[in-house]
Specification:
This protein has about 300 residues and is an alpha/beta fold. The protein is about 45% helix and about 20% strand.
Length: about 300
């Protein structure tokens, strides 16, 4: 784009075309008629073509002018969207957003999202609550939460809610470093050790149950049911327990070597993670800023809808 073209050139040209008159356009822009006429001539000189012809009825566009008008209007519309975005972020500073996050999201995605949100709305008020799927969804329905990020639940639990998929994630089996199973990994042998598994109300529980049935594994003699990430991390690191959990919950521990993933093929446990909101919930401007923060983090980490979240 020619750097000599300024906003005033585009604004004057579009307003003249809209009003069909230099006089009326000058009045709308609080300019004199000679001033707006000079601005139009400057633009035509920069472009090297005639955009408008004067006549007794006012002005008419030339063929080149009609083409340029289309793109000039698009440019002004894009600029207005940007200004509206700034206004949205400014309003978000004064609004509070209550967000529920399942443990796998709280441990991985949320720290970066919170940082990004703080850049977009430096004085924004975020309240983050983590917990099991059913608990967070109930809080969402009651209006105590505005959004929930987590796994898609059973259809019965999603009545009256909308779900926007962000990425996919799968279940993993993890143990402490040096665990006996690492020497001879066999999914059938996990029954020989204490097992930490999700309770029936957990979003991943049906998926885990299908996996175990598919591998002919029944009840565990020694089982602890919990969604507590703190308990799972501590108990697994200091025992021979096998922890069955969403990959996101333990992503940091796996990266640091504090826990080790057993090499079982758990692709069948992959499921969508997304944003949940009430279908009739308030369309708060701060929600748009938060959603923008989420999408920015996903793009930065190359996580797209349908991508693997482990």
């Amino acid at each position: 784009m020619d750097r000599r073209i300024k906003y005033r050139h585009i604004e004057a040209f579009v307003e003249i075309a809209r009003e069909g008159s230099l006089k009326h356009a000058a009045r709308k822009l609080f300019l004199t008629q000679p001033a707006i006429s000079k601005t139009l001539k400057e633009l035509e000189g920069i472009l090297g073509t005639t955009l408008m012809r004067r006549n007794r009825g006012g002005v008419t566009l030339t063929r080149q002018g009609a083409v340029f008008l289309h793109f000039a209007q698009m440019s002004l519309a894009s600029l207005q969207q940007g200004l509206n975005g700034l206004e949205t972020a400014d309003h978000a500073l004064k609004e509070r957003l209550n967000v529920g996050a399942l443990p796998s999201v709280a441990a991985t995605l949320m720290p970066e999202v919170v940082t990004e949100f703080s850049h977009l709305a430096p004085n924004g008020m975020l309240r983050i609550l983590d917990g099991p799927h059913d608990y967070l969804v109930d809080r969402l329905r009651l209006g105590a939460l505005d959004l929930v990020i987590g796994r898609l639940g059973d259809p019965d639990t999603m009545q009256g809610l909308t779900f926007t998929q962000l990425y996919t994630e799968q279940v993993v089996f993890v143990v402490r470093a040096g665990h006996p199973l690492l020497a001879n990994p066999d999914v059938q042998r996990i029954v020989d050790y204490p097992v930490i598994s999700p309770p029936p109300a957990a979003a991943i529980a049906p998926t885990v149950e299908r996996f175990l049935i598919a591998h002919g594994i029944g009840e565990f003699p020694n089982k602890i049911e919990t969604v507590s990430g703190a308990l799972g991390r501590a108990y697994t690191r200091h025992s021979d327990a096998v922890w069955i959990i969403s990959g996101g919950v333990v992503a940091n521990e796996l990266a640091d070597g504090l826990l080790v993933q057993l090499p079982f093929d758990t692709a069948m446990t992959r499921g969508p993670v997304g944003l949940m909101s009430r279908a009739d919930g308030p369309n708060m401007r701060v929600q748009h800023v938060f959603r923008l923060a989420v999408q920015t983090v996903l793009d930065r980490n190359d996580l797209a809808t349908g991508a693997e979240g482990n």
